[in-house]
Design goal:
This protein has 170 residues and is α+β, with helices and mostly antiparallel strands. The chain has two helices and nine strands.
């Protein structure tokens, strides 16, 4: 009987330690990021029909300081117009995240954006990876959405850049 009781106590003690570790670890990982959210309405340039064709885009730009490093990322959410059927509206797209002199382009949004207007959903989201910068001065994270629309409708080519509000200074 004693053996069973000691095993039960040991399992309970280990469970309690694991539970407290999980509770402590989760808030620490998310702590410290300060974010700003802003939004824009983006027109689909190649469509001139009678229905609404704007994409509602919201971007949250976040930054945190940990020691001598500043870390930043962006989260983009979009809500496309239901009138846009058939897909293929963008040629390429990327989100540019920058902290001081360190910037990185994240192209993963292109496939998600283009497929979101093909599958009847017209909504989607994308979170970039992290950009980091080492320095003592305070910094903000800046981000932009860069879209190369397929057939701009007026002969233009290249990326249309939309800037969003920067993160708070960290």
């Amino acid at each position: 009987m004693r053996k069973a009781m000691s095993v039960g106590v040991t399992v309970s003690a280990v469970s309690a330690v694991l539970a407290s570790t999980v509770v402590v670890a989760a808030p620490v990982a998310a702590a410290g990021y300060r974010c700003t959210t802003s939004s824009h309405s983006l027109d689909t340039p190649q469509y001139s029909g009678p229905w609404a064709d704007n994409w509602g885009v919201r971007m949250t730009v976040c930054a945190k300081r940990a020691g001598g490093w500043v870390y930043a990322y962006a989260r983009v959410r979009w809500d496309g117009p239901n009138s846009q059927r058939g897909g293929g509206y963008i040629h390429d797209a990327f989100v540019r995240v920058q902290v001081k002199h360190n910037a990185r382009n994240f192209h993963g949004i292109a496939g998600r954006w283009d497929s979101s207007d093909r599958n009847g959903n017209y909504n989607g989201s994308y979170t970039t990876g992290t950009v980091k910068w080492k320095g003592r001065s305070r910094a903000v994270a800046a981000a932009s959405l860069n879209i190369d629309w397929r057939n701009h409708g007026d002969g233009r080519t290249g990326y249309a850049k939309t800037h969003f509000r920067s993160s708070p200074r960290v």
